[in-house]
Design brief:
Two copies of one chain form a homodimer. Chain A is an alpha/beta fold and 338 residues long. The first copy, chain A, has ten helices and 14 strands.
Chain lengths: 338, 338
Amino acid sequence: MKVAILGATGLVGRRMLALLADRPWADPDPVLLGSERSAGVRLDFRGRSIPSKAVSPEDFEGVEIALFSAGAAAARRFGPIAAAAGAWVIDNSSAFRMDPDVPLVVPEINGGLLAAAGRGSGGIIANPNCSTIQIAMAAAPLELAFGLAEVHVTTLQAVSGAGQSALDEWRRQEDGLPPCDPPLFARPMARNVLPCIGGPAADGSFEEEAKVVRELRKILGRAGDLGVTCTAVRVPVQDGHSAAVRFVLQRDADLEAATAALRGFPGLVVASDPLDFATPLEIAGGNAVHVGRLRRDPDHRRALLAWVVADNLLKGAAWNALQIADLLAGGAATGADR
Amino acid sequence: MKVAILGATGLVGRRMLALLADRPWADPDPVLLGSERSAGVRLDFRGRSIPSKAVSPEDFEGVEIALFSAGAAAARRFGPIAAAAGAWVIDNSSAFRMDPDVPLVVPEINGGLLAAAGRGSGGIIANPNCSTIQIAMAAAPLELAFGLAEVHVTTLQAVSGAGQSALDEWRRQEDGLPPCDPPLFARPMARNVLPCIGGPAADGSFEEEAKVVRELRKILGRAGDLGVTCTAVRVPVQDGHSAAVRFVLQRDADLEAATAALRGFPGLVVASDPLDFATPLEIAGGNAVHVGRLRRDPDHRRALLAWVVADNLLKGAAWNALQIADLLAGGAATGADR
């Protein structure tokens, strides 16, 4: 299948291209698109060097899969153009996620939504927010086994979630250099933690927190009646988001049954010891979502605590997008590495 | 009053000595005590250099205030000796915190327990865990105004909470050097987050988490019926613990009334804008507990979310201990800086 990547030179775009190289369904000549600024940047694909070019509407002619990781404004402009040209647009921005006509897909959870889409007819599929994906992956088997009543999340999010310029700025600060002007982070990022990701949201939270709340409800099909809170914190980690989650279930939480439900869910790696856990530094580069520190809330028969870690650029972005592409290309979803 | 500091050369001990210098009630010749290893290390007090000496039981003769920050084993050995010699022992370890005969004191909350103690008769007072103190400071005014039903905490704790050797090891790792042998952290600390502080606890959590649960209940006088959960995470920050807290109240949570209750409580600095917050890097070195990001849980009329930050070595340890000493010395508690 003919593939275009919009935002190919970004942190997520580069990972999309690397993952695409392994896809047997991928045409050998992907079209690498981006801003004027990144035009001419060359990226490797299956041993060949391919230049990125500045995107224009005609670039999507003949494209069957268009992987977008170029922000919401670019997605709003080029998404409908690419879809009208017959491409499946898999968009990693927030532009279309809450559109009732656009599926918001984590393949292991609701990949079935794509079966109805059929092959080759074109349209827009939304890739969820990075933190939301990993929380949804841990939540879904508990929803199936016990029903969820509430999900309360504190995220500890890697700097790479804010893009290459944020990584550069963080490293400058770590080296004792002054912040760039205008500042990229609201407060110093080096050796600090910042509970503000995204702009202010309508509900008194920050936008990242509002995304977790509304996207988790949509993915789980629980738009109306799932209680969700989120405090999203940027931490000085390069890659890999962590989340401390308290799940309140609809039925009594049996720890063994919960562990079994999580173990049986594809794409999850569940710690074998309840005190064991993954850390972002150690699991970055892998595609799995890691669940550890699973324990009961001793004061609440229906509540569980867990520690959930995944690579925000892979399962949180590029890997999830390529899994969607796999389904659209007609194959079975590729399992996460373990 | 004659003062001894056990563990004077440690991170907390040094801050105790610096704060002591401002106390009008403090005798000009504090006795600096510690291990054999730290014997001979000289510290400044009011412009004079005083050597630390290896502790022995007779060092507490004539001492009226004994500030301990030397771990639980040293506290168990020397606490009863110092108290028997007539000193008030203010112990920063976990050794006596849950002893029903020992007051566990945050002066702004339950300093009244010390009034009954009287002056000069000697005994042991426990200084709570660093994370617990700042969470209790935010919880106490909400308990008074609304009654608390549940407190759910995720901490993001600074490396200095694990002591000087942990700081040294973290910096070694930041510089790309291999971990020390045996490793001081369970996993790499540099550019990583570790949800394991302290050893395994009986309830399936780690010891730091168990401390927050049981000490918060004791400080608030709610040993039997306050639901508390905690996930404690070490983050690559030098000084200053942060906590994302969800408070479930007994009565409806009116945000204005909650803000007013917090503002009226001594030692707290409450952000003026609900989207505003403190960060550990910015408030380290101050004595206040900072409450920000105060908002309602939109799905739960009785629940509030907050972001609570304090310097773990000051209000979390040395400052709280010196406030206790102030009360025992007969003065009013010194207000936190704002």
